[in-house]
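For this section, I looked closely at the sequence of one protein beside the tokens encoding its backbone, which the following lines show:
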Amino acid sequence: MENRGSKEETLYYMIEGWHGELADTDLYFHAAYRQEHPVQKGHAYTVIDGIEGKGIFAGLSFAAGMNGNNTCWVEGEPKMYLDGDQYPTINYTGTEDYFCGSYAFGNDILLHKYQTFSGLYAGMYAILGNDSQEMYNGQQRFLLYRFHVKDPVYFQTSFRMTMDNLGWTGARYDDYTSVAYWYMENPVIVASRTAQIIVGPMGIALADALMGEISPAMANAVAASAAYRVLIPMNLCDTYVAGVSQKSSAIMDDAMEHIHQLLTEMGDTACL
């Protein structure tokens, strides 16, 4: 959580979790926040990119804030690119169609106004602003969600998603904000396949190390990787490494110097 204002604020929160063992085949939950205020006119908004590995796209939460005259902002097409496809693997017909609405959420026909709705897996649950009775709410804003529970999107090697920002008159420049959700195989295993340098405590190459966080599959992936490994000896938990002082900064200095040397030798091709 980031406070972007100049005034110190108090944050109240509650964290719930589950403690137990995960099998090496279990998928891990991921979420990524993105925003573009405004969307660069003529360019698609990126919901998520850079996902590499095997997984399932589970959906997103989305907010759109109107800039300028609302010329039916939902004309943009959400597009999903699976497994390295250069053209959309899945191309939806419009923004409102992706969120399981139609005809501009009721504004085109019959109602002639936007209609909120909330379903189990999709909805537009709030419309804010553009009301003379509300103070400081001049910008019209739409809050939506779509969860791919009944129609999960499976990918084997990569996934990215974009969303056009278009109206009847062409490209728009609205404020788009989103959180994408997906499940994916262990990121350590995925990264070990292509990394050129692996840096971490020596426990990352030991099964069940670091309080059990390193699974056998993770340790095997690090050990079998073709990457150059920079392992930092540390005395943690029930492990004692002879000759290593927990307070010594010389070890970290040596590791950073070696990493810098490797990056210099590899140049622009380095993948850490």
Observations:
- DSSP finds five helices and 15 strands in the chain.
